[in-house]
Hints:
Distance between the termini: 4 Å
Structural class: alpha/beta
Strand order of the largest sheet: 5-4-1-6-7-8
CATH architecture of the largest domain: 3-Layer(aba) Sandwich
CATH class of the largest domain: Alpha Beta
Shape: globular
Order of helices and strands: EEHHHHEHEHEHHEHEE
Strand content: 5-15%
Radius of gyration: 17 Å
Number of strands: 8
CATH topology of the largest domain: Rossmann fold
Amino acid sequence: MYDGIIFxxxxxxxDSRETIVKAWNDELKAQGIDRVITVSELTGYMGxxxxxxxxxxxxxxxxxxxxxxxxxxxxxxxxxxxxxxxxLYPDVISTLKELKKKGYRLFIxxxxxxxxxxxxxxxxxxxxxxxxxxxxxxxxxxxxDNIALIIKRNNLKNPVYVGDIDNDRIAAGKAGADFIYxxxxxxxxxxxxxxxxxFGDLLRIGEEK
Length: 209
């Protein structure tokens, strides 16, 4: 049995693209920047670090040149998510509650900005179910380092990371965690330790560990 389940956010727990696009475009307009981001475009950036996303959206500029713009975009994004939430995948809350009852310790690691995970926890009022979180926005570290931080900080011996893209699989492996592929998310992953087709499938896996 796993002693800790570490979750990715986007494509695993929820789909926040519509809310993000609305927030970003509102902020770009407020700053007088003639740039419109679509959901389709954003999908290609899901799971990337903040600097990689910025350089994808403004390819002719370095992140250091656009960071002040993105700081405001992320600030507005967090505000919208705290107020409106996003599209939660089916049975997420009930599954988290049941996993907690079963004795699993639950965590979140994402490549997002500071405040993003907190907005999710605040909107759905589930702070009590998630023991610890970490993200790129807190420390500029890649996902595998942040997974490793969670593992070390919480003395996990047999952790698993749940994500939806191949970079999640790679990060889990580098951090010394098993990987469960959320097939319903944004990616197409060929190698994994286990697979779920909906979030609730987590209730039936990993018992042999």
